């Protein structure tokens, strides 16, 4: 059977360590880093008016038990330390984090045909 060797390289792990640097003095920081570097992640860069707030609304509260039904964490998560998804908490951090996770030229710009029916 065909096989492929796939590996997260040191820069991938290092980026994970840097990502939550604002939280480095929190007691849960070591377990957070173990979690966030425990496997591959899917990265997205979203763009649009108010996208930081709308993404966080869709994601729901940090503690899944306080997250509304219909949010990703509310529907799919149980514990704060396993809350499925991350969203930047400010436009400045959005820019910083996208620069951390993507190299120039890796982002593609596209517009769904539905967009003009959702926002104008
Ligand atoms: P992110 O979108 O991942 O940044 O979450 P957030 O903005 O809702 O929360 P915050 O930035 O304050 O914390 C980052 C992550 O650290 C959270 O999503 C949790 O996974 C984890 N975390 C935060 N607070 C706690 C805590 O009290 N205990 C534990 N175990 N993990 C925590
Ligand atoms: Mg956060």
UniProtKB/TrEMBL annotation:
Does the keyword Amino-acid biosynthesis belong to this entry?
no
Picking any one GO molecular function of the record gives:
ATP binding
What EC class is this?
A: transferase
Binding residues annotated for ATP, in chain numbering? 9, 28, 56, 62, 73, 83
Known EC number(s)?
A: 2.7.4.6
Query: Record's superkingdom?
Result: Eukaryota
Per the Swiss-Prot or TrEMBL record, the active site comprises 86 (pros-phosphohistidine intermediate)
Family label: Belongs to the NDK family.
Q: By what name is this protein known?
A: Nucleoside diphosphate kinase
